[in-house]
């Protein structure tokens, strides 16, 4: 698992660089690389979440265009590239599939720094990939439960009824995120 | 910014559903408002979003259309569909997500009296659940009621006490079929809450039951 994690971390560093190139230089080659990796994954995710192929293709293009337009809002000390892209795809899905607004929490008052601390970026990356690794290593039954929740096959009350959800995996990631948040506020 | 005394948080199930984007809009509004008041839950949301990122990263890829990249570049050149919304400001005691629904701060709320000093303002959300602001004068009670579905009550100001505990600013109570309760506003100050439910409330006494259709709760 460690070597896979290392590979993933290196990959995320590349994606972070690509997003910075899009933000600073409108770099289409960097965008094409991101697109080749993420667009098929976003489309797969949308199709698993109930979109037909045509709708999923259209939404995927919108998600990837949003990535370009909002590149300046990406903060690699708060989310990995995959997590950020997930939040864009999720919001588009609510918009197109459920035709609802998505109320978002208030932005943090200090905003985000244009050049976040590299140590924070690295730590976030490691935590993200540890969590990904832990999810990949779950027994099938538990992983399927998580997938069902995120693909929209379980309501919140159905999630509450599940006893096999591996929340401990998620909780170690929370503690570190909270430490960082408090650190930032000082 | 954050309320340091928050004792009652969003449950893991609600947080996961909010992160997944599967909650009714009224519930999402309540969770987003709580997160705006609670750093701990903000950090929890980051972790749950990270689960979503992992699923994208590890999930099955689907072939995109042959011209997909070119079509996306064309979309980018057309520019965003709409201008970016103005930055959201916090003012007059309401966190940003609620301000978006009220159309301003607390002084912009259009209260309607529902009797005995209690006032409410229904917020416009998708019909799968409803959200309203409740104003309960210090020491007053909201009639004893049970629930058919889930009811979330988030305290914005003041506090209320019921059979379960005391709930202060930022605290969220998650009630389901099993809970019949009579929330009473703390004697010290008027209480303002955001309440969201995915089923009509059932009042125990006759009068509120007759009034229910008129109250839209």
CATH level 4 superfamily of chain B: Jelly Rolls
Return residue spans of chain A where pLDDT drops below 50 for at least 5 consecutive residues. none
Do you know the CATH topology of chain A?
A: Rna Polymerase Sigma Factor, Chain: A
> Main beta sheet of chain B, described?
6 strands, antiparallel
**Mass-distribution shape of chain A:** globular
CATH topology of chain B: Jelly Rolls
In the CATH scheme, the class of chain B would be Mainly Beta
User: How many beta-strand elements of chain B?
Assistant: 11
Low-confidence stretches of chain B: none
The helix content of chain B is 25-40%
Strand content of chain A: under 5%
Shape of chain B: elongated
CATH homologous superfamily label of chain A: RNA polymerase sigma factor, region 2, helix turn helix motif
CATH architecture of chain A: Orthogonal Bundle
Write up this protein.
- The complex is a heterodimer of chains A (186) and B (217).
- By secondary structure, chain A is mainly α.
- Chain A has a single domain, classed as RNA polymerase sigma factor, region 2, helix turn helix motif (Rna Polymerase Sigma Factor, Chain: A, Orthogonal Bundle).
- Chain A contains eight helices and no strands.
- In chain A, helix 1 (2-25) crosses helix 5 and helix 2 packs antiparallel against helix 3 (53-69).
- By secondary structure, chain B is an alpha+beta fold.
- Chain B has a single domain, classed as Jelly Rolls, CATH 2.60.120.
- Helices cover 32% and strands 20% of the residues of chain B.
- Chain B is built from six helices and eleven strands.
- In chain B, the strands form three sheets. A six-stranded antiparallel beta sheet of chain B has the order 1-2-3-10-5-8, with helices on one face. A three-stranded antiparallel beta sheet of chain B has the order 7-6-9, with no helix packed on it.
- In chain B, a hairpin with a 6-residue loop joins strand 2 (119-123) and strand 3 (130-136).
- The two termini of chain B are 31 Å apart.
- The interface between A and B is large, with 82 and 67 residues.
């Amino acid at each position: 698992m460690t070597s896979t994690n290392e590979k993933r971390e290196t990959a995320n560093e590349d994606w972070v660089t690509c997003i910075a190139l899009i933000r600073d230089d409108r770099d289409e080659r960097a965008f094409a690389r991101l697109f080749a990796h993420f667009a098929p994954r976003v489309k797969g995710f949308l199709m698993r979440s109930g979109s037909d192929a045509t709708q999923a293709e259209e939404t995927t293009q919108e998600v990837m265009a949003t990535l370009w337009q909002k590149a300046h809002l990406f903060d690699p000390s708060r989310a990995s590239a995959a997590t950020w892209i997930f939040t864009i795809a999720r919001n588009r899905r609510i918009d197109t599939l459920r035709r609802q607004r998505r109320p978002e929490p208030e932005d943090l008052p200090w905003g985000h720094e244009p050049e976040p601390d590299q140590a924070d970026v690295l730590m976030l990356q490691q935590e993200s990939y540890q969590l990904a690794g832990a999810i990949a290593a779950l027994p099938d039954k538990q992983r399927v439960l998580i997938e069902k929740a995120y693909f929209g096959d379980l309501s919140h009350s159905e999630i509450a009824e599940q006893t096999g959800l591996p929340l401990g995996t998620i909780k170690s990631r929370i503690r570190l995120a909270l430490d960082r948040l408090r650190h930032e506020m000082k | 910014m954050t309320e340091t005394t928050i004792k009652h948080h969003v449950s893991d199930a609600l947080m996961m559903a909010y992160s997944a984007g599967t909650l009714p809009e009224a519930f999402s509004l309540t969770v987003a408002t709580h997160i705006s008041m609670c750093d701990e839950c903000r950090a929890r949301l980051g972790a749950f979003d990270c689960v979503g990122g992992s699923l994208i990263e590890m999930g099955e890829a689907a072939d995109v259309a042959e011209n997909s990249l070119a079509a996306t570049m064309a979309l980018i050149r057309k520019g965003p569909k709409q201008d970016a919304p103005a930055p959201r400001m916090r003012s007059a005691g309401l966190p940003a997500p609620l301000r978006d629904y009220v159309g301003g701060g607390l002084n912009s709320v259009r209260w309607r009296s529902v009797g005995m000093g209690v006032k409410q303002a229904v917020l416009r959300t998708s019909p799968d659940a409803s959200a309203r602001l409740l104003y309960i004068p210090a020491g007053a009670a909201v009639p004893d009621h049970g629930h058919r579905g889930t009811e979330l009550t988030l305290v914005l100001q003041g506090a209320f006490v019921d059979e379960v505990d005391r709930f202060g600013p930022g605290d969220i109570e998650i009630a389901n079929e099993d809970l019949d309760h009579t929330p009473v506003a703390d004697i010290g100050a008027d209480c303002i809450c955001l309440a969201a439910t995915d089923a009509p409330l059932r009042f125990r006494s006759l009068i509120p039951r007759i009034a229910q259709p008129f109250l839209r709760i």
